[in-house]
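Hello,

Our lab assistant flagged a job as stuck in the queue for most of the afternoon. It eventually completed. Since we weren't sure the result was trustworthy after the delay, we are filing this so someone can double-check. Below is the sequence as submitted and the structure that was eventually returned. Let us know if re-running is recommended.
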Amino acid sequence: MPVFPRISLKPEVTEYLKSIFLNKEVLAVVGQQEAEHRFQKLLTCLSHPPSYTCVRASTHLAPLEEIRHKLQEELKKQQMCSSPAEGASVQILPHPRIPDVLLLPVDGPRPVKQLSSEVLVGAQCGNAVLRGAHVFAPGIIASPKYMKVGDVVSVFSDLEGRCTRGATSFQGNKVFVGNGVAEMNRSSIFCADEPARGVGVRMVEPLYQSPSFDGVLPDLVFLQNLPSVVVGHVLGPQPGERILDMCAAPGGKTCHIAALMGDQGVVVALDRIRNKIDRISQNAQMQHLQSIKAYCFNSIQAVSSDPAQKSEGPPFPPESFDRVLLDAPCSGLGQRPNMASTSSLKEICSYPPLQRKLFQAAVRLLKKGGILVYSTCTVTLAENEEQVAWALDMFPCLTMQSQEPHIGSEGMPGAGLSPEQLRLLQRFSPELSWDYTETSTPLSSRADKDTIGFFIAKFMKN
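-- returned structure --
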């Protein structure tokens, strides 16, 4: 059963999403009642975490079974240190269709008793706790006046961001995410001289039990949502190719692409923000990948006006890449868990024009016969199926391609695409299967469906 309220959105955003999920094409296929049911289910499942933690294994460094065994041993040690009374059973299963994915079932919601001593964290920090993280000091907004190291506290998430930092209590809109032990005194957390770093509260009784991967086998395992791993396989990189990741930070997909091609070839990673580029380089170094070249650059301007340009970095001559991944900036309305979004409708509607500018650059940079994969982590038509319809109309050289693996649902009606075209798309739609009472479905099948909201389209340039 749901334990959190539906995601809190601005009223105009709720109405906008409702108009998408109850559009005429959807109603013609499933009917008013089912469409309404799916929309309400979406709002509920977005505020809850997926039922499985997905880990991408560095199979370019070691066999999957070896990585699974090492991870099992590490997580057993972690569990014995934090909750020795609960035993040391950690279930880690390989995905049956994706050869570099390990799945860990999430235990929750659990019967955890709330305590009188409360710590309040920001919504983003609260979301991370629901995925297995501890509470880091920068995420703490309020704590008891005399909180000291070793105090047992209940952790709450501030849904609307209305609490003043440094408060000693808060009576506003908040939700309980579990109990933990303070690792810092209040005075250290809210020290005016220097921002506090490190774990502020170590979670010992989270509402949703999932392992913390902080510092666990950083070269061999990488926490990544299942659809994000699927993207790399759909792109299908081959050894020796030159591949572009246009919006690459923090580098999870970039590193996956390099690993899939056996670190043979070149993977160019672009992002506009310098510290994000540093993060990509760090991840590549951690996973022993040498083929990645990361540049701080705006991908919209990545096409050179000089076809004869020979420099290694951006901008690049047209038709420079065998494959291009455009994991586009988006409204992020498929992310889970997300109990509240402060985005306005204007902000959400600002993404499609940016995505189209990036798409135009992607097509120009792609070689003839090359593959372009477009993806987002949102649920709107305007950023997904409508972009596909626009691209097919704008670029006659593009044809849609089938995807492998295809473990999500097909595309959503509403953008004028044919049933055949919708079947070539891959939309991860948690509202179609999300059900906390469902236990009879095989784990891998449930893991494929109970994901973040995500969208993938694959094209070939003829």
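-- support follow-up --
The delay was a queue issue, not a problem with the job. The result is valid. The chain has a mean pLDDT of 93. The longest strand covers residues 366-376.
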